Amino acid sequence: MVEIGAVARRLAAIRADLTFAVMPHEPHTADVARYLQRQGREVLLHQPMEGSGKNPGPAAIYGSTDPLEAAAILEESLELVPQAKGVNNHMGSVVTRDRQIMEALFTVLKDRGLFFIDSLTTGSSVCRETAQAVDLPFGARDVFLDNEPSAGYISGQIEDLVTVALRRGWAIGICHPHEATVETLSREIPRLAARGIEVVRVSTLVDMPDQ
Question: What's the predicted TM-score (pTM) here?
């Protein structure tokens, strides 16, 4: 297993404007977030939320969490990653279906001038409608690149992302710090550039039409 700080350094060395989502309450949270900011990288808070039975990790928001308590948890997480320009959900297939909780969270983000990227871990997410209701800048994932952490699979998912981007003009992909992901991105991103496809920070893609 590669230590997460080393993974962040390797990903930050890729010549592309990747956006990084940092989880709170991890051993290297503060160091990694500061390092990425110094490298000129865009940072998000990767907020843990209840999903399909797996432990979402420390500082998680659950479907049973009172909305006001959920807002307080998010505030605390944001204090741990002050570099964050926005937030996206880690897991969250339960919580992102709950309009009351998401409205409480989005009110926090709105007050702080941040945005939200829905990882879309469920087709029943209410995040888009809730973001529109509170006038919060919003975007949503198009393709998960590495649900299967193998080079062949990830390369195929990158091609799926490219297909969406060529059809619509843009696309949002999400991946994880797997060894195979780092190696595949390091190899494939220069090839994308040679094809005239640009990797941009996710903040430039919020509130794009036809999401």
Answer: 0.95
